[in-house]
Structure formats: C-alpha cells, structure tokens
From TrEMBL:
<feature type="compositionally biased region" description="Acidic residues">
    <location>
        <begin position="1"/>
        <end position="11"/>
    </location>
</feature>
<protein>
    <submittedName>
        <fullName>Uncharacterized protein</fullName>
    </submittedName>
</protein>
<feature type="region of interest" description="Disordered">
    <location>
        <begin position="1"/>
        <end position="24"/>
    </location>
</feature>
C-alpha cells in the first residue's frame, strides 16, 4: 500500500487542517472522538489528497472510527465504500483530518 497507513503513498503528516476556515465539526477539535463514530474526510484533507495526486481510499464516502491511538489524537477509520482501514490525525501534530457526520 506504500504509505504507513495514510492515504496512499508518502503521507508526511502535513495534510490536515490546523485552523479550519469552514463550519466543519472537526473530530478532536469540536467533537470528542470515540470508537464507532461516523466520519468523512475534512475539506482540507481532501484538498491535500488531490494536490498530491493520491487516490481517495474512502471512495468519496463515509466511514467509522475503529480504533483510537495517542490519547485520541490519532485514529484508524474503516471506510464503508472500500473497506480500507487507514490512520488519520485528530489533533496529532496540530492536524484535524476528519469531520463528524452524526451518530455512531
């Protein structure tokens, strides 16, 4: 898979949103993360993926947090459309890669 658990190859930890410019409910900043929480990628994260020419392993859909790490500052998400499991920042390194979408 080529990338240490992040979206495709070479994620260097600089792709999330440290200061959101939207009304997104960022997991780890505005919403406390929990296993089972429904999420989508933040607009900043999606932009970073596009700019780097990576595939969106979520398939453009939502997923669920399946594991929390680093005291809730990172997590693993299983994407519903693709069944891919990847790691995302929830405040780790000042980055917020995910948006809460409701129940879980």
């Amino acid at each position: 898979d080529g990338g240490g658990g992040y979206d495709d190859e070479g994620y260097d930890g600089t792709g999330g949103s440290a200061e959101p410019e939207t009304d997104e409910r960022l997991v780890g900043m505005h919403v406390k993360p929990h296993v089972g929480q429904r999420v989508v990628k933040s607009e900043e994260r999606k932009r970073y993926i596009r700019e780097n020419g990576w595939d969106d392993l979520s398939g453009g859909g939502g997923g669920k947090i399946v594991e929390l790490m680093d005291d809730g500052r990172r997590c693993m998400v299983k994407w519903s459309k693709t069944s891919e499991v990847m790691e995302y920042a929830l405040g780790y390194g000042g980055l917020y890669d995910l948006v809460a979408t409701g129940g879980g």
